[in-house]
Amino acid sequence: MKKLKLIYGALIILMFIGACEDESNLDFLNDIDPPSNVGANYVITQDNSGLVTIIPYAEGSTSFDVVYGDGSELVNFPNGESTQHIYTEGTYNVKIVAYNIKGESTEVTQELVVSFQAPQNLVVTIENDAVTSKMVNITATADFATIYEFYSGEQGVEQPVATGNIGDDISYNYETPGVYSVRVIAKGGAIETTEYTEDFEVTEILEPITKAPTPPGRDSGDVISMYSEQYIQTTVDSYTTSWSVVAAQEEVAIEGNQTLVYRDLAYAGIITESEPIDASAMEMVHFDVWSSNVNTFKIKFVDFNGTGYNGGADNIEFEIENSIDQEGQWISFDIPLENFTGVPFTDINQTVISADPVGTVFIDNLYFYKQGSSSTFNDGLLTNGDFENGSDSWIVGVNDNAPAPVVTNGGNSYYSVNVVSAGNVYDVNVSQKVEIIEGNTYTLTFDAWSDTNRSIVAGIGLSAAPWTNTGAPLNITPTRTTFTYTYSSVGFGAPDARVLFDIGGEVGLVNIDNVSLVIGSGNLLVNGDFENGSNPWIVGVNDNVPAPVVTVDGNTYYSVNVLSAGNVYDVNMSQKLEIIEGNTYTLTFDAWSDVNRSIVAGIGLSAAPWTNTGAPLDITPTRTTYTFTYTAVTFGAPDARVLFDIGGEVGLVNIDDVYLSMN
């Protein structure tokens, strides 16, 4: 597969919006950002003529100005086109100005060398990518050169496979590892080129360099773990058997996390005979798999139904086949137990795994579970606010290399430190860095408890001098308590500001969990996670028609499959609430589909003139969180609404965890 450096930018997007008949407006323009990632690629004609083709690119642009840098007049043209110019020999600073649909601009200046001499002093660096298997990264520099081309040395592949401006990085993915005779050709304005050759070994990453995803915290009664450091483990007699066909089975530590590995696996058995597993109360089986050379992984559960190994016909076994379609990455599987037709899961003595073709497989987090009291947690602007991914993103003080201490108790993970000697309150601290924008309003929510009555300081603030913050003391007790603080129009801001907890001022244990930071004064919506069903979500603006929701694996969300495309507002979900004219609002939600398609989301009126902020956005089969801020809205009403218009294209639309806050 090729990954070319030449990027031509996006075509102008024709934007159509509507949340109901005759309600279209241009409010969505307020949410369009200036162009980003602006630059240009050069193509120089090798005939000593000095003819250069300039191909600008940018994200979010509709047109470009190009200033050639030699005193000529600038040119303007739409995104997707290029310009040609004849230069004399020399070095020029070419300016590229990208404009969005509102006329806002972003500009960059980059060097162009035009020379009729052959490139000299060509230096090429070729390296295997440290993360992506069979990917190489190439850089080339040379005097009197404008561009360079990379020839991969593969038979039957059109060459060159990648091109870049001299000095820029390019990457290329090979289909198979091996030694290839690669070439790099540097070109300028001269007919003569300069070439570099090398026999380069493309390598395959054969073992994971990162640990498997950390499972969420679950109550001990909601999970039966066969292999995972996250949960209490049930008795496993052996992770292989005498009849297994595998070169070796062992444990390895990946980022400090123990992981099962089966080398050259055909099939193997995991035995739980001494204490057979009764998973009849569970709903799902989960496992994480990593392999660089296996296409299909199978798992089979053998239930002897209380009759033992000599039960003969009573033996019940069923397998599930899973395609490993993301080579060299951890793949997580969650399979309903009901898919294993005929297996009662009352007496699991064996679990059989197999690989096709034979290859090495890494396995972690093999467990049964039910949703039970486990639930998703909305941490807003933060990452891992419930600590279920361990220390991820949480640090001691402001030291990015000092992970905060986290414990797991009863399947729930949380921050925990015992202060044995009192000092300055900031001597013991846990933080997470997050962007804070001056003037915004933020709401911080968290749970805290101790083994005694003591105080801590919590708030948001800067992570460097002058250390401005909102921190204030609060009292915690041995009773786990939820605290909520709203900070209005904060007087500081920085991209690397932070949420902070200072706890060093008094002795005693401090536990912190479920930390959430949101813009504004909290969620203005009711039942934004749909866990109470449809109420008060409705179809369109009809208060008597509840929006359709589904429950899958214990999670409830809005779901509609559009079978026939029409007006975008023909299929709609809304929740009515008060919107105050002139205020600023932030809307956050998760959305996903079974295809790549677009929807419209925003806030607006629920009656004529139907003014709204709705704008198209693209959703995919990957569940994604979207956030939009609407500044100084130009409408308001006590019965305004959050709206989702989805009728414009066919395909499934799922929406969950909708959050609207007032800044």
What's the level 1 CATH class of the largest domain? Mainly Beta
Shape: globular
Strand content: over 45%
Radius of gyration from the alpha-carbon trace, in angstroms: 30 Å
Looking at this structure, what is the CATH superfamily of the largest domain? Galactose-binding lectin
Main β-sheet, in a few words? 8 strands, antiparallel
CATH topology of the largest domain: Jelly Rolls
Low-confidence stretches: 1-28, 306-313
CATH architecture of the largest domain: Sandwich
Helix content: under 10%
Count every beta strand, where a strand is a DSSP E run of 2 or more residues.
42
Layout of strands and helices, then pairs:
Elements: E1 36-44, E2 51-59, E3 63-67, E4 75-78, E5 83-86, E6 90-99, E7 105-114, E8 120-128, E9 135-143, E10 147-151, E11 162-165, E12 169-173, E13 178-187, E14 194-202, E15 223-227, E16 248-254, E17 257-271, E18 284-290, E19 296-303, E20 316-323, E21 331-336, E22 348-369, E23 395-396, E24 406-409, E25 412-419, E26 429-436, E27 442-449, E28 454-461, E29 472-476, E30 481-487, E31 494-502, E32 508-519, E33 538-539, E34 549-552, E35 555-562, E36 572-579, E37 585-592, E38 597-604, E39 615-619, E40 624-630, E41 637-645, E42 651-662
Antiparallel strand pairs: 1-2, 2-5, 3-4, 3-6, 6-7, 8-9, 9-12, 10-11, 10-13, 13-14, 15-22, 16-17, 17-22, 18-21, 18-22, 19-20, 19-22, 23-26, 24-25, 25-32, 26-31, 27-30, 27-32, 28-29, 28-31, 33-36, 34-35, 35-42, 36-41, 37-40, 37-42, 38-39, 38-41
